[in-house]
Each structure stands twice: as structure tokens, then as C-alpha cells.
Structure prediction request, 281 residues.
Amino acid sequence: MRLQVRDKIVDFSDCTMVMGIININDDSFSGDGTLNQNKAMGMAMAKVDEGADIIDIGAESARTNRGPISVEEEINRLTPFIKTFHSARWDKDRPKPLLSVNTWRSEVSRKILPLGVDILNDIGALSQSDNAIICSDHGTALLIMHSIGLPKEPHLGQKYENVIEEINFFFEEKINLATSVRLKEEQILLDPGIDFAKDRAENLNILKNLREFHKHERPILVPVSRKTVIGEVLGIDDPCSRDAGTVACSVSSIIRGAAILRVHNVKAASQTVKVIQELIK
Prediction:
């Protein structure tokens, strides 16, 4: 499986990559966000040292019990980080990772993609074609996440007749939408949207049947780190205490062909990937 990212080709044929999460906000559900740009960059450097292949930055928490920030505030939080990221010293001992930006507003994408973004992590379920057009214009890869409705709005009553089939239909529809506005299929990644408009049984069903999404022949990202479904299975309220459950889900996802694990604890995920890859050779 290959992904075109700006001027690079990323090959997932025999490896699972680790995406480290950096929250440039003060209301992250996992309590690891910061509005201090220097601290955020230091956290990113530390995650690269721990094995992150990709750094994913977001300026707005996806929590639905918090109001949205303005477009201007989101841009103002993201821009300094991106500029500092590209001016940082990267070398063979600390290779430059891919940079992913987590946003769904096209007004934000239009401002930040020209600064040098490898992956646009669209948690808005590609409700319109705008983000696909902007990615096409800048050679940025597009991560399409499954959800129902817009971010920051709770969708607790959503019911699926067959969650796997409905997600696959969604992916097919959104891939067609993206490619209809000139985005290459090789620039698309897919995310089944763990915990977004889904209950415990549906989330577990997705993880158990991850292989079903390979029919689209696009890399699959699994964003299960510290999620509510893990807390429900283990009876753990504190997200920061769910890393063991995250590792368990990561092992299952690697075996089922996940291309990327999006995680808070990069060290644990990176070590998990290395061991599992030795075991499944």
C-alpha cells in the first residue's frame, strides 16, 4: 500500500507507522494539551525521539461538551507551530517526521496547507469537497474520517443496521467525491472514526473487522488511543490510565493490517509495532 504525500511516496507494504498526537489547546480529553508553542514543539520532538513517524497537531478539542473556537483562533494556534516545525533542526539522529494537521474547516485548511502540511486530518467526514480541492492544490494527502454530522455536535442516538457496511458505503462515496475534484486516489487515507457517533459494540465490531475496509485499497488509520470504548471495557474513567487497553487494540489493529496508529503514548506504540512485526514475519 502506497500513499502520495507532496513530493514523497510512503510505502506501508511491510510496516505500521506511528502518529503522535500534539494538542495545541487547553481542553484535550486526555489532559495533555498546551497553548505554549515552545512546550508543544518540545513535546513533538520528544515523540519523534520515541519513534513517531508522523506528528498530528490539532488546535481544537473534539469534545462535544466544549464550544468551538473561532477560525481565526484555530489558525493562530496552528501557524506558529508549523513554521517552527519546518525551521527545526532535523538530522539522521532525529529524522523529520511527516506533519499532519487535524482540522475540518476549509477556511483553516486554505491558510495552513501552503505552510507545508503533509496530511490533512479531516474529522468533518468530508461534508463538502472543499478540503479535497485544497489538498489537490497543494499535494497534501487527505485523511477521511467516518462520522455522522459535524464535529463538536453530539450524536449519541445514531443507530446502524450494519456499521461495517455503512462505513464502507461512506468510504466509497467520499473517495468518489474527492477524486471527482482532482485529488488522486493515491493521496487518500481512511479512518473508521472510533468513538465518533458509535457505541461500544459498534467500536469493537469495527476493530474486529478492520480487514473489511481494505477493499478500498487505501491505507487505514486506527485512532483508538485512550478512547471511551477502552474505558468502558476496562471500567476506567481517566483517559491517561487507558494505555494498556490502547496497546491491546494496537496489537489487534496491526495484525489486521492497520497502516497507521494514532496515539498519545508514542513510546508504547512504537515498541508494540517493533515486536509485532518481528512476530508476524
Summary: The chain has one domain: 2-279.
